[in-house]
Design a protein that fits this description.
By secondary structure, the protein is α/β, with parallel strands linked by helices. Helices cover 35% and strands 23% of the residues. The protein starts with a helix and ends with a helix.
Length: 314
């Protein structure tokens, strides 16, 4: 450890949602575990930052600027020196990081699947014409592809907010990420994981990323000790699919990389908003080829989908 690291105090930025705070606390605990000197009081400070994505809940993200709205205020605080590193749900990060900021570590991944919350069992058990609360174009497209009779209604907010809306009868069912529920320790009656062959998750869903300033070599070195290589490999492939597709929040895109028998298997999907057109593909290779596999699969999906999906979001 350098002399600077031995004396430094680090401010850790996070959104103020219950899930974000739980993930940040877990990341800080791991940091202290890997760097015992930071277990002393005051060496790590959690800084809660309100983001535009948290403040504006009455419109889809795509209508107010995309998923970067969960991170831009945090990025600004980092570049201004108010925080030293930040903890994010990795699926909320933009495909291309802002200048001066890097992903310094990726924590072990939770269950990447989506979870259906409904009185019925799975998607095929939902009553004809059921209303599904979701503002995710990815979830909407895959739902409608399998069940064109379903009606998707806008649902935004944290886990608690969405469950309250469901209880209030604003929808018959909703979909949440398994990872968030697991990290919050929530067991919900009627919760059924959706198989990935039915609904491919968002790229990097279930992974937590830690970002810091690109030129802060000391903090980057400290954070490198937290990185989980297996998760890093998987999300590298998935984010490369996004990069090749150059998709926005208006384009339904899914991706999931898994390690099977020492090999990396990658699945990807791009679809039209109405679910009528869904293009899938897969690749398999070594872990060292993760990024190349993702770019190659993304290019294939882009060609299969054609320009209309991207021009109008499907």
């Amino acid at each position: 450890m350098t002399d600077r690291a031995a004396a430094m105090t680090l401010n850790v930025g996070t959104r103020a949602s219950t899930l974000a705070l739980a993930q940040t606390d877990a990341a800080m605990a791991l940091f202290r575990e890997r760097h015992a000197e930071f277990a002393a009081p005051g060496r790590l400070a959690r800084i809660e930052i309100s983001t535009t994505g948290d403040q504006v809940l009455d419109r889809p993200l795509a209508d107010i600027g995309g998923k970067g709205l969960f991170s831009k205020e945090i990025d600004r605080a980092m570049l201004d020196g108010r925080i030293d590193f930040a903890v994010h749900s990795m699926k909320d990060l933009e495909t291309w990081m802002p200048a001066g900021i890097v992903i310094a570590a990726v924590l072990p991944r939770e269950d990447p699947r989506d979870m259906l919350i409904a009185a019925a069992g799975g998607i095929d058990d939902l009553l004809q014409g059921s209303r599904i609360g979701t503002s995710s174009v990815r979830r909407q497209a895959q739902l409608l592809h399998r069940r064109p009779d379903l009606v998707c209604v806008p649902f935004r907010g944290n886990v608690g907010t969405r469950l309250k809306k469901l209880d209030a009868g604003e929808a018959d069912a909703t979909i949440l990420a398994c990872a968030g529920l697991n990290r919050l320790g929530q067991k919900i009656p009627g919760a059924t994981p959706i198989p990935t062959d039915v609904m491919l998750p968002a790229c990097a869903q279930g992974a937590v990323a830690i970002t810091c300033r690109e030129n802060d070599e000391t903090t980057r070195a400290l954070l490198a000790a937290l990185n989980d290589p297996a998760t890093d490999t998987r999300v590298t492939a998935e984010r490369a699919v996004l990069e090749a597709l150059d998709g926005s929040c208006r384009t339904p895109i899914g991706g999931l990389a898994e390690v099977q028998g020492g090999r990396l298997r990658l699945q990807g999907l791009v679809a039209g908003l109405d679910g009528k057109k869904v293009c899938r593909g897969a690749r398999e290779g070594g872990a060292s080829d993760a990024r190349a596999m993702g770019l190659d699969l993304g290019a294939e999906l882009k060609a299969l989908a054609g320009p209309d999906i991207f021009a109008a979001g499907g």
